[in-house]
């Protein structure tokens, strides 16, 4: 690991977040439109720090971010959802113009000092993204958790991620079969992070209360790591395909939020369900597609308006689940789950169908 020390979490220079003068572009007459992220609902302002990590044993260089409740956000600028150079690569990879839009701004304030809402250390949630994706893709959920008192660590899985390093290198997902990563490789990246929580958190993080969630391949990685590492006390899979399968039984809580990789359609997902011996829940939002539990559900409709995408094309990207309702689901369900299993706060939302969420089915 590189550049980390045991200094205070609130003052450690863990890595670089540049204060990009994004407002200047907004004032240009022909500037692209800036996308917007929905605001979190919790009572705490949010701080964030970028981390540059080196796993020398595995020859892996990683970028990560930690999000947390902040004590004072004055003089700490908000950070963009994604750096400009990385966003350009992401847009081009999806078939859009590189300068189609500007990155939304997040609710995270760069380097703001950490707040402990109580005398206890902060419960931790780690996030693993999907294949050919990036660590920002569930910022809606990440910000929601941080605004309610969690420390959330998001990780770019190098060679399967769009990522920029502090020296300016921009990497995109590799097409080299020799660099192909599976769920266990993702899980190993997260395990490396867990092994260095003291360096990352400087005593502010609670290693006895760790949860994990992931989307797609990251959802599968969440399950794989839960089987391998008991430090993960509870997990959420956002439409993980669950291949390859893991043998054995899992005795800790798992919530599956499915869309396309359902138990009915995917034998691997059904097999995993039968291996769960602890608390378990499978929910599914009507009209959801694979991306519906990510930020894309909120951002793609905005992009569609800018570039003139047809309604049919947009539905191909995000399905028929209303974007506003998707955001509410992304905020409510993971928070209720981790509150119950990391903080022992009961939630009626997890007990069965809720009139507040008529589009969410609770699968037996």
TrEMBL record:
InterPro entries: AB_hydrolase_fold, TAT_signal. GO terms for molecular function: hydrolase activity. The keyword Hydrolase applies. Keywords: Hydrolase, Lipid degradation, Lipid metabolism. The keyword Cell membrane does not apply. This is Alpha/beta hydrolase family protein.
């Amino acid at each position: 690991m590189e550049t980390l020390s045991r200094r205070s979490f609130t003052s450690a220079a863990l890595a670089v977040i540049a204060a990009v003068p994004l407002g200047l572009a907004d004032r240009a007459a022909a500037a692209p439109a800036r996308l917007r992220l929905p605001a979190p609902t919790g009572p705490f302002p949010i701080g964030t720090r970028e981390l540059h990590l080196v796993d020398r044993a595995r020859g892996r260089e990683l970028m990560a971010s930690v999000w947390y409740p902040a004590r004072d956000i004055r003089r700490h600028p908000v950070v963009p959802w994604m750096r400009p150079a990385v966003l350009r690569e992401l847009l081009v990879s999806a078939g859009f113009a590189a300068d189609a839009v500007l990155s939304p701004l997040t609710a995270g304030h760069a380097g703001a000092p950490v707040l402990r809402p109580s005398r206890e250390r902060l419960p931790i949630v780690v996030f693993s993204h999907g294949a050919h994706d990036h660590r920002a893709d569930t910022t809606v959920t990440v910000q929601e958790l941080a605004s309610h008192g969690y420390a959330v660590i998001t990780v770019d899985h190098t060679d399967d991620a769009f990522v920029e390093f502090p020296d300016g290198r921009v990497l995109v997902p590799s097409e080299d079969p020799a660099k192909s990563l599976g769920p266990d490789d993702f899980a190993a990246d997260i395990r490396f992070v867990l092994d260095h929580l003291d360096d990352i958190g400087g005593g502010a993080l609670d290693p006895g209360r760790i949860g994990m969630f992931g989307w797609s391949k990251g959802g599968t990685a969440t399950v794989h790591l839960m089987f391998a590492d008991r430090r993960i006390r509870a997990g959420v899979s956002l439409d993980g395909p669950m291949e390859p399968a893991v043998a054995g039984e899992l005795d800790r809580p798992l919530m599956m939020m499915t869309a396309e990789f359902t138990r009915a359609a995917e034998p691997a997902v059904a097999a995993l369900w039968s291996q769960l011996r602890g608390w378990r829940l499978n929910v599914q939002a009507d009209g959801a597609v694979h991306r519906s539990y990510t930020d894309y559900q909120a951002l793609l409709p905005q992009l569609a308006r800018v570039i003139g995408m047809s309604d049919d094309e947009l539905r191909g990207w995000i399905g028929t689940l209303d974007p506003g309702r998707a955001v509410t689901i992304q905020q409510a369900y993971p928070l209720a789950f981790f509150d119950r299993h990391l903080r022992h706060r009961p939630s009626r939302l997890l007990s069965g169908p809720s009139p507040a969420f008529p589009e969410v089915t609770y699968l037996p």
